[in-house]
Specification:
By secondary structure, this protein is α/β, with parallel strands linked by helices. It has helices at residues 27-38, 52-63, 106-111, 113-118, 130-142, 161-164, 173-180, 187-199, 240-254, 260-274, and strands spanning 2-4, 19-21, 46-49, 71-74, 81-86, 92-97, 121-124, 146-149, 168-171, 204-208, 214-218, 225-227. The protein has one domain: Ribokinase (UDP-N-acetylmuramoyl-L-alanine:D-glutamate ligase). It starts with a strand and ends in a 21-residue tail after the last helix. The structure holds adenosine-5'-triphosphate and potassium ion (K).
């Protein structure tokens, strides 16, 4: 939920804001929404609270055609939230309470094992307990399901098994720096990150570079490739990373024979549409609104 104000309040101060809105999020949900809008059959495995936010959350997923069979609702924690205050200069303060997300456990994964093991692609992030995310990747892998891992929010001491259990490891510049210690400001830096992550056991690494598109490198093709994004007029880049990951998951699942570079190029196109509208899920394009040569 976001509050727009002219300036940020000081400790103990009450100020008036001029706008308030609630948007749905969670990286997993955002990615799922983007995949679903492109036409993928999707299911989200997560946990929310038995509260009005949780009810609305489930409703929103259903509206987007996402299966909620494995969206648990618990009375033991509140739905995860992010409260954001943004001033007129665009500076913000944010409080995140993960809440019910942290209660998603191995039992929940076991209950969902059918969707995990029969999926074409499993996408994981780090907004739940990392060990649970890793277990989902392992379950997928053991069944020959393609794994796409997005290490967000990044942890400096990520369990090294995340590298070896990801078919595709996709991070942005900030995450790349936290994971490797290499500040990423250009393509060359991203290439260094790519080499380092391949050494750690990744099969294929993608570093997203905002308006510059992406860098990709793989064990099969260890020469880094730049996949540029089209030039667009960006109005709000919030959520672009999740749009990209969601689109990539769609192509991996629905067009598995496309060369990876082509999948990334198409995912860049989808994500570059999202930066031309404000908000996160509200900016994600539907298949019918995109150039049909993307399909
Ligand atoms: N200004 C832009 N113009 C065109 N495409 C963009 C732009 N910004 C982002 N994109 C697309 O979105 C993808 C992801 O962007 P980025 O690397 O900024 O992710 P991110 O930092 O995780 O984003 P965010 O945190 O804002 O969601 C890029 O690889 C590109 O395809
Ligand atoms: K956006």
């Amino acid at each position: 939920m976001a509050h727009l104000t002219t300036r940020l309040p000081r400790a103990g101060e009450t100020i008036l804001g001029h706008k308030f809105f609630i948007g749905f999020g969670g990286k997993g949900a955002n990615q799922c929404v983007q995949s679903a809008r492109l036409g993928a059959k999707t299911s989200l495995i997560c946990k929310v609270g038995k509260d009005s936010f949780g009810n609305d959350y489930v409703e929103n997923l259903k509206k987007n055609g996402i299966s909620t069979a494995f969206v648990g609702q618990t009375a033991d924690a509140a739905t995860g939230t992010a409260s954001i205050i943004v001033n007129s200069e665009g500076q913000n303060v944010i409080v995140i309470v993960p809440g019910a997300n942290l209660l998603l456990n191995f039992e929940d994964l076991k209950r969902a094992s059918d969707v995990i093991c029969k999926a074409k692609v499993v996408v994981c992030q780090l907004e739940i307990t990392p060990a649970v995310s890793l277990e989902a990747l392992k379950m997928a892998r053991a069944s020959g399901v393609k794994t796409l891992f997005n290490p967000a929010p990044a942890l400096p001491d990520l369990d090294p098994q995340f590298y070896t259990h990801s078919d595709i490891f996709c991070c942005n510049e900030t995450e790349a720096e936290i994971l490797t210690g290499i500040p990423v400001g250009n393509l060359e830096d991203a290439e260094k990150v790519g080499h380092m992550l391949l050494e750690r056991g990744c099969k294929l690494v993608i570093v997203t570079l905002g308006a510059e598109g992406c860098m990709m490198i793989s064990v099969e093709e260890p020469i880094p490739k730049h996949v540029p994004a089209g030039k667009v007029r960006a109005v709000d880049t919030t959520g672009a990373g999740d749009s990209f990951v969601g689109a990539l998951a769609f192509y991996l699942a629905c067009y598995p024979k496309l060369p990876m570079e082509e999948m990334i190029r198409k995912s860049n196109c989808v994500a570059s549409v999202s930066v031309q509208a404000s908000g996160t899920q509200s900016s994600y394009p539907f298949r019918k609104d995109l150039p049909q040569d993307l399909f």
